[in-house]
């Protein structure tokens, strides 16, 4: 049976609980738990579960509270205010969970959903490939039917959490490009990461860190009951999962406010000249305009989100470069300024490249002609 608590009363309950328990949480690492925080992240997920805040809008038969997406939005907002992660890992609790709730068979739902809330099943996303990043439909990893199993061969890249996950959501081609258009013939699978023939390699970045992994599949045998959704219909499954989860605009505003506060503090202890003050003022003004845009957009994401993604990405790149300029010669030595400058270009790729965001803005918001597609 579902709870009947009002959104307002639930928000008060959540705020009070977080005030008492936020000290036990890991740092607010965002959507994806980094490898060095996985033990703390799992412990926090189980604390959330024990308190009744895991799967707030999931049905009660799968361990959720049976509340509304508005109740879940309150949880996200209050976690943002408290500076704690709302879930262990967005891939598991949002993407994999959302796909299983919408497309899973009863057996798949019984096997995975409660175990995901309990952090017994930890998930990674096996979508992007070396030749299929922003253009995901060009993926080439194959899943060839062979009796009661699929044989998986291929490679995935930019996989967050691959080395610590025991399950993944996999998109693979079940029809060749000769047989179907590239958006067709793709299927969606729940994938055990411990199968023979799976190799996970940390992917070292130019910062020296390895936040992501490469995953290689060599003649991996995957039972047919791991198919999620219709055969050859995986593109629709993936896109529905990526776009259907409704967020809360307050969380993005709070995150942006914190970034602006951090940007403002780079001037502390420095005697800035007129040009430097102008540069910093311009960046802060730009950030506040994005904040106003987010507040106008409302709680339901739209294509206008591409304006936010592009604008904030470019703003944070400029902030990192300005921080390096302010540091002078010290900005060439190992430290936070150098780390920030080396990390900044990655923001132009993550979550949809800046080039793709410009195409979306031009074609869907401004009504410009579509970019020519080579045959």
UniProtKB/TrEMBL annotation:
It is an enzyme of class 1 (oxidoreductase). Residues 124-220 form the Acyl-CoA oxidase/dehydrogenase middle domain. One of its GO terms (molecular function) is flavin adenine dinucleotide binding. Keywords: FAD, Flavoprotein, Oxidoreductase. Residues 233-366 form the Acyl-CoA dehydrogenase/oxidase C-terminal domain. Gene3D superfamilies: Acyl-CoA dehydrogenase/oxidase, N-terminal domain, Butyryl-CoA Dehydrogenase, subunit A, domain 2, Butyryl-CoA Dehydrogenase, subunit A, domain 3. The keyword Flavoprotein applies. InterPro entries: Acyl-CoA_Oxase/DH_mid-dom, Acyl-CoA_Oxase/DH_mid-dom_sf, AcylCo_DH-like_C, AcylCo_DH/oxidase_C, AcylCoA_DH/ox_N, AcylCoA_DH/ox_N_sf, AcylCoA_DH/oxidase_NM_dom_sf, Mycobact_Acyl-CoA_DH. The keyword Cell membrane does not apply. SUPFAM superfamilies: Acyl-CoA dehydrogenase C-terminal domain-like, Acyl-CoA dehydrogenase NM domain-like. Its cofactor is FAD. GO terms for cellular component: plasma membrane. Its EC number is 1.3.99.-. Residues 8-117 form the Acyl-CoA dehydrogenase/oxidase N-terminal domain. PANTHER family: ACYL-COA DEHYDROGENASE (PTHR43292), ACYL-COA DEHYDROGENASE FADE34 (PTHR43292:SF4). Belongs to the acyl-CoA dehydrogenase family. This is Putative acyl-CoA dehydrogenase.
């Amino acid at each position: 049976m579902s709870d009947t608590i009002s959104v307002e009363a639930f928000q008060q309950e959540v705020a009070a609980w977080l005030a008492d328990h936020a000290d036990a949480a890991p740092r607010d690492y965002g959507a994806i738990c980094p490898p060095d925080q996985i033990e703390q992240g799992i412990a926090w997920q189980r604390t959330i579960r024990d308190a009744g805040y895991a799967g707030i809008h999931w049905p009660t038969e799968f361990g959720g509270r049976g509340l509304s997406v508005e109740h879940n939005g309150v949880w996200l907002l209050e976690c943002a205010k408290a500076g704690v992660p709302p879930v262990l890992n967005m891939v598991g609790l949002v993407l994999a969970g959302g796909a299983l709730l919408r497309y899973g068979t009863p057996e798949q739902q019984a096997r995975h959903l409660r175990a995901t809330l309990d952090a017994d099943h930890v998930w990674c996303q096996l979508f992007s490939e070396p030749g299929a990043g922003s253009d995901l439909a060009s993926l080439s990893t194959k899943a060839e039917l062979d009796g009661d199993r699929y044989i998986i061969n291929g490679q995935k890249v930019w996989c967050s959490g691959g080395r610590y996950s025991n399950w993944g959501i996999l998109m693979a081609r079940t029809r060749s490009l000769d047989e179907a258009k590239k958006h067709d013939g793709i299927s969606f699978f729940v994938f055990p990461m411990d199968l023979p023939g799976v190799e996970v390699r940390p992917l070292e970045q130019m910062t020296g860190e390895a936040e992501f992994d490469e995953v290689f599949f060599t003649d991996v045998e995957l039972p047919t009951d791991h198919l999620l959704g219709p055969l050859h219909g995986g593109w629709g499954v993936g896109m529905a999962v990526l776009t259907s989860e409704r967020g809360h605009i307050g969380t993005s505003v709070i995150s942006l406010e914190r970034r602006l506060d951090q940007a403002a503090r780079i001037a502390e202890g420095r005697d800035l000249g007129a040009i430097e003050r102008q540069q910093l003022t311009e960046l802060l003004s730009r950030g506040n305009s994005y904040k106003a845009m987010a507040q106008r957009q409302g709680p339901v994401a739209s294509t206008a989100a591409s304006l936010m993604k592009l604008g904030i990405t470019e703003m944070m790149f400029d902030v990192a470069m300005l921080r390096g300029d302010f540091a002078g010669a010290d900005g060439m030595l190992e430290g936070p300024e150098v780390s920030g400058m080396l990390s900044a270009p990655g923001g132009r790729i993550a979550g949809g490249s800046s080039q793709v965001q410009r195409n979306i803005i031009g074609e869907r918001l401004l009504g410009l002609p579509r970019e020519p597609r080579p045959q």
